[in-house]
């Protein structure tokens, strides 16, 4: 019955500073700094980056990349510093092009105070070969191309191999503006997933089996009032009954010069998916990690529309419902070689009901009004409403019927952007 007040989000200043310099040969170099200052004893952060794109005088070759350093000033822990390097070089003109490069992220690289990074502590080295025919001598085909790449990936600390991956893509566009694509992606050695076991020292990994994925897309002529995009892929693993499948269908309707609507329907299934489980009322050994085998069904359905009030004002609205149902079958213990062995953990509560089978729902409504009140200058008013709910495993339609029980969160944002022409301002003062 007691009440207490806790400060969870102090007064904070966010600052972004960018400088970019154009160089000869269509080259450029840029400097970026983001800074977060929080009042009191909360963590402050600063991220500094240098990015570049350098070309030779014939525009045939390029060297591009970025180098970034992150600093987090943590109370009683000092300064936590991390680094990221991306660099690639290759041939960029002609029908045949190629490039090779690397990405290195240290284990403590963290730009997330004013940025977003899923996971640091990764390295990869890659090579890519492309062929593009821009003007084939054909009455039907407008352009086509192939891309073939291979990458070697590992952890940064400890320096442990994780996997080799190949990617082969084909693209074709007809003179009718209908486009088609296909791809084949493989993990011929499988890969070691050091992130799924959730160990802070990366001492354990989950061995993912070898796999091959095939997919493709169809995109019809966007110039017509009605068009459609269809995308699908299928991934098979070297493990009995394990596969992934996904399909997305998104028709496009241009009802007039003012109204444009795009509904979309997406479905995916992951069969015999393996992932970390946090046990309930189960005594673990000091190093034991529980891995569950599950089926994951995901629906992602939505509709977006744009209404142009005139040549300076527009209204955009997006409605989306993301639903993912997870149902577990078996549980096992992660062994030292990354394989999953039998476990006596059942994932049941005292009433013998499953405790890990869940439904996750996320329903969003985004509305954005934009007014271009001067050249290069916009007033943007946006409203966002989120509905979130996690429930025991149940069918899709039942979740839709229970939207009223969702946790609700909404926000209104107003942004004004004014473009200042430095040349005109300078002439005015002179």
Set down the secondary structure blueprint:
Elements: E1 12-23, E2 27-38, E3 44-55, E4 61-74, E5 78-91, E6 96-105, E7 122-133, E8 141-155, E9 161-174, E10 179-187, E11 191-193, E12 206-208, E13 211-219, E14 226-237, E15 243-254, E16 259-277, E17 290-308, E18 313-334, E19 340-342, E20 358-374, E21 377-392, H1 396-401, E22 407-417, H2 422-429
Antiparallel strand pairs: 1-2, 2-3, 3-4, 4-5, 5-6, 6-7, 7-8, 8-9, 9-10, 10-13, 11-12, 13-14, 14-15, 15-16, 16-17, 17-18, 18-19, 18-20, 20-21, 21-22
Description:
This protein has 430 residues and is mostly beta strands. The chain is 3% helix and 63% strand. It contains 2 helices and 22 strands. The strands form 2 sheets. The protein has a 20-stranded antiparallel sheet that branches. A two-stranded antiparallel ribbon has the order 11-12. It starts with 11 loop residues before the first strand and ends with a helix.
- Strand fraction equals over 45%
Helix and strand content put the structural class at mainly beta
Percent helix, as a range, is under 10%
Averaging pLDDT over every residue, what do you get?
Answer: 92
- Shape, principal axes of CA atoms: globular
Order of helices and strands: EEEEEEEEEEEEEEEEEEEEEHEH
CA-atom Rg in angstroms: 26 Å
Distance between the termini: 69 Å
